[in-house]
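Our working data are protein records whose layout never changes between entries. Instead of coordinates, the fold is spelled out as a row of discrete tokens. Here is such a record, shown just as it appears in the course material:
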Amino acid sequence: MPDPRTLTRADFDARSTVTTRWADNDMFGHLNNAVYLELFDSVLNSWLMAGTGVDERTSPAHGVVAESSIRFYAEVSYPGSLEVGVRVERVGRTSAVFELALFAPHVETVAAHCRWAQVYVGSDDRRPTPLPDAVRSFLERTLAERTGKAGERA
């Protein structure tokens, strides 16, 4: 994986604008760490639902976060609009790995970078299950458009 600090908006499969809220700042005047995960989760799930047509709230299988990590490179705060980029890193049999990045307005460098692993489980038994066909197709197509490869990234 390249150094996240070298990534720009153009490196991401999709981007979404998000607006910060008054309550997002912590006592030090910058976005609270937990808010980053909330923003990444919202953008990723909106992107997946729009791209696949699958509503995980009613689907027989849905993704759960198995791992997430964030590296912070620059402070951002309320008020303002931010941009979140999302891209597919790897597509496995029962899981997918994503990269997400937060960008401040008019700044091309990454303010925060997240690696996000999501495992698909059956809604009834909560056991790992293969990615739904619509999800796999969307993720592999998206990955192939950016890298020229489907499935796992080399």
In short: The first strand starts at residue 14 and ends at 19. The domain at 4-147 is CATH 3.10.129.10 (Thiol Ester Dehydrase; Chain A). The first helix runs from residue 33 to 52.
